[in-house]
Design a protein that fits this description.
Elements: H1 2-58, H2 62-71, H3 74-91, H4 98-118, H5 126-141, H6 144-155
Helix pairs in contact: 1-3, 1-5, 2-3, 3-4, 4-5
C-alpha cells in the first residue's frame, strides 16, 4: 500500500511538472508571438507616419497644402506637423523612445481628430481614432522603456 501511494504521488508530481513545462512553453511562445506582433505594428506605423502622412506635408503636396489652407494654418504648421510625424515614426523604432513616441503621436492624433470634426465635418475622423488604438497599446506595452529614458536623461 505504501508503494502505491508513493507511485501515485510520483506520478502526480511528474504530471504537474510536465503540465507546468507545457504551460511555460506555451507562455514563452505566446510572449514571443506578442513581441513580434507588437514590433511589426510599430514598423508599420513608422512607415505610415513617415511615408503616407509626413512626406506629403514635407514636400508640400497639393493635397496637404489645400488641407492646411482650409484650416487656415498655412505652410509653417504643415511643415511642423510633417516633421513631428516623421520624428515620431522614426522614434517608434528606437527602443528607448518607443513608448514616448507612441504617446506623442497619440496626442497628435487627438488633435487630428478634433480638426477632422471641426474643420472637415468629420470626413476622415475615424482615421486618427483607429491609429490611437495601436499607439495606446505600444505606449502601454513598451512603458518599461520610459524608466530607461529617464535614467539616460538624468545622467546628462
Amino acid at each position: 500500500m505504501g508503494r502505491d501511494r508513493s507511485a501515485t504521488a510520483s506520478a502526480v508530481s511528474t504530471s504537474t511538472v510536465l503540465t507546468s513545462a507545457v504551460s511555460a512553453s506555451g507562455h514563452v511562445r505566446w510572449a514571443r508571438w506578442a513581441r513580434i506582433t507588437l514590433r511589426s505594428v510599430q514598423v508599420l506605423l513608422a512607415l505610415f507616419y513617415g511615408v503616407a502622412s509626413a512626406l506629403p506635408k514635407l514636400i508640400a503636396h497639393p493635397s496637404a497644402v489645400e488641407s492646411f489652407d482650409k484650416m487656415g494654418w498655412g505652410s509653417g504648421a504643415m511643415f511642423t506637423i510633417g516633421a513631428l510625424e516623421l520624428a515620431g515614426g522614426a522614434a517608434l523604432l528606437i527602443p528607448v523612445l518607443q513608448s514616448v513616441a507612441a504617446m506623442a503621436l497619440g496626442a497628435l492624433m487627438v488633435g487630428a481628430f478634433i480638426v477632422q470634426l471641426t474643420v472637415f465635418d468629420g470626413q476622415n475622423a475615424a482615421t486618427p481614432l483607429i491609429l490611437i488604438v495601436p499607439l495606446t497599446l505600444i505606449a502601454w506595452a513598451r512603458r518599461g522603456s520610459n524608466g530607461e529614458l529617464m535614467r539616460l536623461v538624468r545622467q546628462r
